[in-house]
Fold these 2 entries.
Entry 1:
Amino acid sequence: MDKEEKKGKPGWDKKVGAARKKPWGGRFAQGMDETVEAFTASLSFDHRLALEDIEGSRAHCRMLLKQGIIAEEEARLIQRGLEEIEEEIRSDSFPYDLSLEDIHMNIEGRLVEKVGPVGGKLHTGRSRNDQVALDMHLFVKKETLGVMERIKRLQETIFQLALEHLAVVFPGYTHLQRAQPVLLSHHLMAYFWMLQRDRERFAGTYKRADIMPLGAGALSGTSFPVDREDVARELGFARLYENSMDAVSDRDFVLEFLSSAAVLIMHLSRLSEELILWSSQEFSFIELDDAFTTGSSMMPQKKNPDVAELVRAKTGRVYGNLVSLLTVLKGLPLAYNKDMQEDKEPLFDTVDTVANVLNVFTAMMGRVTVNEKRIEQAFESDYSTATELADFLAQKGVPFREAHFVVGGLVRYCLESGKKHLGELSAHEISSFHPELASEEACRLLDYRQAVEAKKCRGGTAEAAVKFQLEKARQLLGETLI
Ligand code: ARG
């Protein structure tokens, strides 16, 4: 730097020029270093908030007019300018300028360019701190509704699949070992209920995002006679922040979105894992549609469940985004800190990831082929009705522990004598293990369909109970949560 540069004369160096252009440039004798400018700017990502920013500014401007803080002609010019800017953004002709740091200052700068110095009155009684908080609330509210709608579509698809294969008996697992037979519809509907909780979680997220921060100013409120209720009404917010410092420091609603998304994608990852297993040659319970699989560049026979695998993997970034923002916020003193600018990329990435995942996953689930024959074959070598027999003995008064041991012996006998399922045992063989087993009823219980039908309790896997469940689910799909 030469001597002249240090004096910071305007207009002779582009860095100084940039400083003059900054809305906050008044206090600075020198321009910003280019690397700092690039490092601190958020425009490359927060341009996504452009429409929310304009919506918020227009409501703020209307309120300033109503409260007599700005004149009618001033408000008219500002509104017209904002309208034009909105058009430029929508038509992708807005002249973004990185030296103006973020989307808020880009829009304000453009407004002044369009309508003259009166554009500078828009920021009366407002700070970028409450402005960006407002934009984030509007954005999270909108995206939350979007996710909820997409979750619902996936629930509908799962519901349909369950309905279509209502009575198919399916091996139920614990520890990924055959446990007890269930209906495939029952297994699928378990995911419906997980997704229902996800939808409810997002409804809660929405509720806590539905709170209006504008009027908080930089941190302490504003001395202008603003009407915060009016802005909240105009923008469709249910409540106002009651504390200006909380209003500009709070990103809980972003965290909640990220954590609701983390639970959601964990569910989708679990279902993905099942689809991957079920579509493997070892299981062959389902077939994924060709359109949702890929081939191998080397092995001609391969059909890979890439979509499900990627959904399983995307869980990593969604969890990462949550942990990232939790870490950013941890230890921040009140009120606004620049750290908080780092809330956006994790949010945007999660919004996009979850939207893409739900879209492709729903389409894939809608085209799953269930291999009913193969599923039925699974029961040709299976001991998963053993619990029925133990329960039967317990009902006859045999202590359950003893009953468990007796039936365990029966299973061992089958294994040792090469019987692939308990149904291969003769009545005589069965009754030799316990006198109470000398009954036709005991033999009937070994049928896996019978085992399913016996689980009539509410929430059980008997067909009638699953029908009841489906009816509940149908009702819930008709209800709105917000
Ligand atoms: N780009 C900033 C953000 O996203 C806007 C708020 C800036 N406020 C400030 N005082 N520097 O957080």
Note: Residues 1-20 have pLDDT under 50 and may be disordered.
Entry 2:
Amino acid sequence: MHAKKINIAIDGFSSCGKSTMARDLARKLGYTYIDSGAMYRALALHAIRKGWITGTEINEEALRKHIREISITFSPNARGGQDTCLNGECVETEIRTLEAADGASRISTLGFVRKELVRRQQEMGKAKGIVMDGRDIGTVVFPDAELKLFLTAPPEVRAQRRFDEMKAAGITPPPYEEILAAVKERDLRDTTRAESPLRKADDAIELDNTRTGIGEQLQWALEMFHRIPAKE
Ligand code: DC
């Protein structure tokens, strides 16, 4: 691990390359990467499977009753990344569908859901040396993070990336227009919800990565990291 051990918060809209940047940065620094969105997605998948999330309704009572028993962990995979596990089962592919994303966006508006996942995330950050990406990492989870980055890109760019990503992962993507509509709907929900809406922390550094390649955005993040003075 890099001698400078801090927490790094990366926030931004959905599908704007946060996870790629966070994963690359963690690998480069020897830090632990935590995808907080995967935790909301795994919880949503569990709720969908149990029938607690339907077209219009969420069975909040059932979710509230069982939330503490639902285990969400990460396990290193052969590709050098991490797989999300739900009660011990690897669900990395299942949580990447539009249905799981939509469910995650919906349950993430619930105060008790956020409270429980934030508690778990803060626990993981106690030892430092964490790169965590999400929506509220710099504002709520680690308000004292030494480095906060905020990524943006227009919805059209993000929808196209999502489309390409699904194809590359062997998932048949829905039509581009459908993905774009879902991205816009999620943006609206993520930024307007009452509980911890997506917001750039005052001390976060912003990057619009529309024209920034993956290698280039990593270089930018590393530069920001090296600007942070090491503590005595
Ligand atoms: O980053 P993602 O697309 O995997 O996130 C899925 C959903 O979870 C997204 O709609 C917003 C929610 N989320 C959140 O509310 N807070 C976080 N820290 C991470 C994700």
Note: The two ends are 17 Å apart (CA to CA).
